[in-house]
Specification:
The structure is a homodimer. Chain A has helices at 28-48, 55-61, 69-72, 76-105, 111-127, 133-139, 146-161, 163-172, 180-192, 194-197, 206-217. The first copy, chain A, is mainly alpha-helical. Chain A binds chain B through residues 47-52, 139, 141-143, 176-179, 182-183, 185-194, 196-197, 204, 209, 211-213, 215-217, 219, and chain B through 47-52, 139, 141-143, 176-179, 182-183, 185-194, 196-197, 204, 209, 211-213, 215-217, 219. The structure holds a DNA duplex.
Chain lengths: 222, 222
DNA sequence: CCTACCGATCGGTAGG
DNA sequence: CCTACCGATCGGTAGG
């Protein structure tokens, strides 16, 4: 008994990683938890604002304990930036899909039809179900540090770049008057403001809003 | 000694007010300090947001110590409500003045001219120097409790009511198409959004913006 | 990803 | 309006 030594592990036994018990199984779990955090953060940031939302609130909403969000994000601000980046990526890819789908139907898409697709998709991104990410980006801009703003701004420029030739074409055909750059800013303003007053079930639908916007901003073709 | 009763105060001796040593002198001082707080709060709430601004920040900016704001306002939220109410009162009276001044010049003001005056004044209220109050109202709405929202909303309805007949007249003359109620919401959106991108010295002036908005939203009269 | 914890800050108050 | 203070909460971290 007394000379019974603990068994010596074979030299080639894989060393167990210490300190951070990472899963060897599918990484999906990790990604899912991060996504859960993003979704919870987006919803709470939108409802209460960034500063009024504690990382504990977010952790609880994602089914975690108070310290766990910092395993996935360096700090609270990085979580905000991630929400905005995620929002812009979704918006851009959704916008590209919408344009492609529309182009497949009618092969020759008029500038007016293009704008209709863009406006309709923008409203979907802004007001559709499960869309907290973009409103957070619109209304928590000042809570972001300068380097993070630049990162988000890059995606934002991509998103807006799609609108430029459409508005230019409308201007050339006399359907949109005035400076197209100011027109774009005012159009975005008119649409983004809907976040403040739109109520899903009530009165006007997103289709209604789309038609109203087109009717309001566009002139008859000459 | 045992029968010595505490002296009975004469019935007509003036009772000293205890607890709050209010000034007997001019009340101007009080009003000025309150205004200082409002101004400081408006600026900080706008720059950093309501939740990210401490009452200590505000006190310091107004030249007071940390506890003093609570002499003037019941709590932080009441201070926010006061900022918004002050903003709406100024906006409304400024709007009334602008309309009166315009009516004195040209005696018959066209609907288009009316809208020009309203838009120009709205931009001034929104983007002019010393105007932090209305932006705070626009972007801190969710930080307000329901009863306070109702109080602010009352003033807001008054302000917007002035626009209704003007937009209706434009619609009747064919210069504005579509539902006038949606048109009003989109117009406000287009203008309010300028808070996010307008830079005072740069490129376009408030006059430029006014003309751009009119050109964008209005059709030729039929 | 949890437990246990820290230092800092915050809104607000008593008493003068 | 100041002084001095309190209880609560918050972002974040060490160690596992």
């Amino acid at each position: 008994m007394s000379d019974a030594l603990p068994p010596i592990p074979p030299a080639d036994e894989p060393r167990r990683a210490r300190g951070r018990p990472r899963k060897t199984a599918d990484e999906r779990d990790d990604g899912n938890r991060r996504q859960d955090l993003l979704r919870a953060a987006a919803r709470l940031f939108r409802q209460q604002g960034f500063a009024a939302t504690s990382t504990r609130d977010i952790a609880t909403a994602a089914g975690m304990r108070s310290g766990s969000p910092f395993y996935h994000f360096e700090n609270k601000e990085a979580l905000l930036a991630a929400v905005m980046l995620e929002g812009m990526q979704r918006a851009s890819s959704q916008q590209a899909d919408a344009m492609q789908a529309a182009a497949r139907h009618g092969q020759a898409l008029s500038a007016r039809d293009c704008l209709r697709v863009l406006v309709r998709n923008h409203l979907e991104v802004l007001l559709g179900a499960e869309s907290d990410f973009i409103p957070v980006m619109l209304y928590e801009w000042r809570s972001l540090s300068e380097p993070q703003r630049q990162a988000v701004n890059e995606l934002r420029r991509e998103y807006e770049a799609v609108w430029v030739p459409v508005l230019q074409a409308l201007h050339d055909r006399g359907e949109l008057s005035g400076d197209t750059s100011l027109a774009r800013l005012m159009l975005f303003g008119a649409l983004n403001w809907a976040v403040q007053w739109f109520e899903p079930g009530r009165r006007s639908s997103l289709d209604d809003l789309t038609e109203a916007a087109l009717q309001l901003f566009l002139k008859e073709a000459v």
